[in-house]
Amino acid sequence: MNAPTDMPIGLVLGSHMPAKDIVAMARHTEELGFGEMWFSEDCFFSGGIAGAAAALAGTNRLPLGLGIVSAVTRHPAILAMELATLDVLFPGRIYGGIGHGVPAWLNQMGLMPPAPLKTLRQCVTSLRHLLDGKTLTEEGHFTFDDIKLTYPAPTRVPLYTGVVNERGLRMSGAVADGTILSVLASPAYIQWAKARIDEGAAEANRTESHRLVTYTLFSVAADSKTAKEAVRQSIAFYLAAMPDTALSRVYGIQDELNELLKAGGAETIAREMPDAWIDDLAVAGDPDECAEKLRRLLNAGSDSIGLWLFPADQARDVATFTAREVLPRL
């Protein structure tokens, strides 16, 4: 399989979800007609590999992407073993998504690499070799001494990277099968990111297709204002957590964001950010508004959109309302 369904809208289940809810939500995602599932691994919540296996076992056809796991919390040989096992059990339904990982979490474990981008590149390229059944011996951040999987992946597992800035995007175009764009990706940023990915692919003489998946903070309700308020705090949180990245620079709000950060951080951002930031950096509103905003993200270059549902404690109901009122409008 290893091919997405025709529906370009998926759901991000995420390890923020209690483990007891994963299987039921995965089944609900499939029953509602979404195109794919994504499972992020946030330290120290529900485990990404175990959560992915449970979601795949609880469903029949939907592909699932790990989006993302850290390049350094597992040795790539172990991650390759896990991905290959998932592909044996659920052929063609697993995508591997790898990124740096949140620096604060890596520092808590003493795992922050001295050269994050170089480390990520080695992780992705070594995974590709091992999943394809090759024997690997190399040095770098990771050491491989005559390592080969006994049970390599029976299909070609697509490997995605979760990156934000220019060098990472160019690297993704050079070595990965796809890229997962972070929440807060505006249409302008998606176009810019796609151009950087294409540059990296051209430099590496890669001609294979490269799939672009965009995560977005998502809330829909009959009352537009209610839906937008549901994502306000999360937009502010991520703007404060990622204060100086291409996401804000390309969107053109860096100076204004810096002023709000100086004035009081996430709480000030949530209280004082312009309404346009909510409209452009998330998908929130009534069904017509949400459908139009999803179309903008697709038209900007996204092949698929992963919805991060809000309010989080009402995710099942939001998913149901989305399938009934938003997806038919696309």
What does the model show?
The chain is of the alpha/beta class. Helices cover 48% and strands 16% of the residues. It has 14 helices and twelve strands. The protein has helices spanning 22-32, 48-57, 76-89, 103-109, 116-131, 166-175, 187-203, 224-241, 246-251, 254-264, 266-272, 275-281, 287-299, 315-325; strands at residues 9-12, 37-39, 64-66, 69-70, 94-99, 136-138, 144-147, 159-162, 178-181, 211-220, 283-285, 304-309. The strands form two sheets. The protein has an eight-stranded parallel barrel, surrounded by eight helices. It has a two-stranded antiparallel ribbon with strand order 6-7. Helix 1 (22-32) links the parallel strand 1 (9-12) and strand 2 (37-39). Helix 1 packs parallel to helix 14 (315-325), helix 6 (166-175) packs across helix 7 (187-203) and helix 8 (224-241) runs antiparallel to helix 11. The protein is globular, with a radius of gyration of 19 Å. The model has no long low-confidence stretch (mean pLDDT 95).
